[in-house]
Design goal:
The chain is mostly helical and 117 residues long. It is built from six helices and no strands. It has helices at 2-23, 28-42, 47-60, 65-76, 79-104, 108-116. The longest helix has 26 residues, at 79-104.
């Protein structure tokens, strides 16, 4: 009987831990922003700089590595949700690329006006 109580106690505690982890995740929109920030810049950093960079991004978004990893794990458990999430990440990266291209393009309208005068 003591073994059954011990096993039930262990089972209850382990289930409680899983529920806690589920609550400690990022909201989808926020996760997309964090993930995009990390992906866009981390590849350009040296290995020894990446950890500090990721930590700074997580701090900027007022979250922790544990919560970020819990979120990754939550989506990894469901391939359909993971696929949908990556579609949103892809859309966000495209949006950021378009914004960057707008900034990088020189304003040629001023040059054309000066040439006509």
């Amino acid at each position: 009987m003591k073994i059954i109580i011990l096993l039930l106690t262990f089972l209850f505690i382990s289930c409680a831990d899983e529920k806690t982890e589920q609550r400690e995740t990022l909201e989808e929109k926020r996760f997309v922003q964090v993930y995009c920030d990390v992906v866009l810049k981390a590849d350009f950093l040296k290995d020894e700089q990446k950890e500090a960079f990721v930590d700074s991004v997580l701090t900027y978004y007022s979250t922790s590595r544990e919560i970020f990893e819990n979120t990754v794990n939550k989506y990894s458990e469901n391939p359909k949700k993971w696929k949908r999430l990556f579609e949103k990440i892809g859309a966000e990266l495209e949006k950021r690329l378009e914004q960057t291209e707008k900034i990088d393009k020189p304003d040629t309208t001023k040059t054309k006006k000066n040439q006509k005068s």
